[in-house]
Amino acid sequence: MADKIKLLLAALLVAAGIGGFYYYADAPLLYRVLGLLAVMGVALAVASQTRLGASTISFGREAYLEMRKVVWPTRRETMQTTLVVLLMVIIVGLILWLFDMFLLWAMRLLTGQGG
Question: The pTM is what?
Answer without folding.
Answer: 0.56
